[in-house]
Design goal:
Elements (H helix, E strand, L loop, with lengths): L5 H7 L3 E7 L6 E7 L4 E6 L2 E6 L5 E5 L5 E6 L5 E6 L4 E6 L5 E6 L4 E7 L4 E6 L4 E6 L4 E7 L4 E6 L4 E6 L4 E6 L4 E7 L9 E4 L4 E6 L3 E6 L5 E6 L4 E7 L4 E6 L3 E6 L6 E6 L7 E4 L4 E6 L25 E6 L1
Antiparallel strand pairs: 1-28, 2-3, 3-4, 4-5, 6-7, 7-8, 8-9, 10-11, 11-12, 12-13, 14-15, 15-16, 16-17, 18-19, 19-20, 20-21, 22-23, 23-24, 24-25, 26-27, 27-28
Length: 327
């Protein structure tokens, strides 16, 4: 490795599991989000959001009194956070210093994926059951627009310049919005990527990374919608991440792996790191170069019924854990 810079050497080193943080408690989970500047990790956990010190793994506090959390977004000024409370059909606004709720904004049915768009200072909550998006003015915490979607939305991404993107899981599509005019401007069909869920973006090179069923990650041009490549990933993904510095794309897979894809040289899978079954959502900390995934131990799966044809196994209490991945 003579002649290689520190960054190049680091980029060649594989990721590994470096810690397990036992959170405990009960209930399911969905998305998590890292705040590198504040050294915090926000983890949705049933009717609450856990706030964890990203250096020590210790609990800092929690936002409570919610009904069924899915995702968290943060403003660009370090003041407020936004929670998609799917069970309450609302976006809950909280003060990031006190963790107290300051507003509850009605959304569509079951808001799921959520983001803050820095170009327009708006919050976008994608409503899974009403197939629309609620756009909130962050200055007033008032709904600025409700935009119909062609199908069931999943996770969104923003380019920071006024374009917002979202996976349409039910139609194998990605849609693009103009955040300033609050209009849908493009619908792009994925050619070989079924049921896209997680979405990440390479803002510099204008690429989207959508993770799908069938162990595939679609790489899509963020301006034209053309599918550039398809990368192999693990089974059962639900979230994606991207490292601008190291030009790596990540897929957290429910089978119990984290796939690392080389986004600079041919979109090849560099690593399938074993994590733990069920760890299908993730957050990437760009400063620490760490990936966080969450999961819990489960009991046997109940027998299917007519009312619940695909039952989920019961979560074993106090087994909820954050798995820390670094190198």
């Amino acid at each position: 490795m003579v002649g290689l810079g520190v960054g190049a050497v680091c980029a060649q080193q594989p990721y590994k599991v470096v810690d397990h943080w036992k959170i405990g408690g009960t209930g399911g989970w969905d998305y998590l989000l890292a705040d590198p500047a504040a050294h915090l990790l926000y983890v949705t956990h049933g009717p609450r959001v856990e706030v964890i010190d990203a250096d020590t793994g210790k609990a800092v506090g929690a936002i409570t009194g919610l009904k069924g959390t899915h995702g968290v977004a943060l403003d660009g000024e370090g003041k407020f956070g936004y929670i998609s409370d799917g069970g309450g059909n609302a976006v809950v606004v909280f003060d990031r210093k006190t963790l107290k709720t300051v507003a509850t904004v009605p959304a569509g049915t079951n808001p799921d994926g959520i983001l803050f768009d820095p170009a327009t200072k708006t919050v976008w909550a994608f409503n899974g059951r009403s197939s629309n998006v609620t756009v909130i003015d962050a200055a007033t915490n008032q709904v600025a627009a409700t935009i119909a979607l062609p199908g069931k939305p999943e996770f969104p991404a923003a380019d920071g310049k006024g374009s917002v993107y979202d996976n349409i899981e039910s139609l194998n599509e990605i849609v693009r919005f103009d955040a300033k005019s609050k209009t849908l401007t493009a619908t792009w069909k994925l050619t070989d990527c079924e049921a896209p869920t997680g979405l990440a973006i390479d803002r510099e090179h204008r690429r989207l990374f959508a993770v799908c069923d069938g162990k595939k990650m679609a790489v899509v041009d963020a301006d034209t919608g053309k599918q550039i490549a398809t990368a192999p990933i693990g089974d059962g993904p639900d979230a994606a991440g991207f490292s601008e510095k190291h030009q790596l794309a990540f897929s957290s897979n429910g089978e119990g792996t984290l796939t690392v894809v080389d986004a600079a040289h041919g979109f090849k899978a560099l690593q399938d790191l074993p994590t733990q079954k069920g760890a299908r959502t993730m957050a990437y900390d760009s400063v620490a170069d760490r990936v966080y995934v969450v999961t819990a131990e489960t009991g046997p799966r109940p027998a299917p019924t007519a009312e619940v044809p695909r039952p989920r196994p019961a979560i074993i209490p106090d087994s909820f854990t954050v798995i820390v991945i670094g190198r």
